[in-house]
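1st attempt posting a full record on here, be nice pls
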Amino acid sequence: MSRLPILAVAVSLLAAACSDDTPTQPTAPPNTFVFLATLAASNEVPPITNAESGAAGQATVTLRTTRDSAGQITAATIDVSSTYTGFPAGTIATLAHIHTGASGVAGGVLIGLVPAAGEVTFPNGSGSYVRTGFPVTPVDSANLIINNPANFYFNVHTPLNPGGAVRGQLRLQ
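the predicted structure (as C-alpha cells):
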C-alpha cells in the first residue's frame, strides 16, 4: 500500500483543523477622531504681515461622537489642546473656531471653540489652550469634518488680527 494517499488525508485534516470558520463581526464605526492642525500666520487669508506674522502653533482637535443603534451620529463634542509661539509678548487670544474652507480659502465659522475672556494669554509670546466638551451643533457638522477634514481649518483670533492670527487645516490622524 502506498503512503501517498495516507499523507494526502493527513495534510487535508491538518488544513481543515487550521482553518478559521469563525464568522467575522462587522466593526463598529469609530466614535473618536483626532485631527492635527499646524498653525501659522502665513496660512491666514490674506497672510498676516504685522507684528504677529511670526506666530505659529500646533492644535490637536479631538471629535467625540455618540451613535445610535444604526451607527448614525446623534451627538458630538470637541476637545482642543493647542500650543503657540512667536506672538508679541502680552498677546491675548480672543476667539478660536473651526471654519469651513480649503487651504487658501477663507470660510465661515462652523464650530465656536471660544475661550473665556483672558483665558488664553501669551505673556512671553507663547502659551497654550486646552479645553474640552465644546458641543457640535448642528450634529451633522461632525459628519462633514469626518468625511473631508481638509475642507476645514482651526484658527485663533487676537485683538491685532480679529479675523484670525494663525490658521491650520485639519488632518485626520
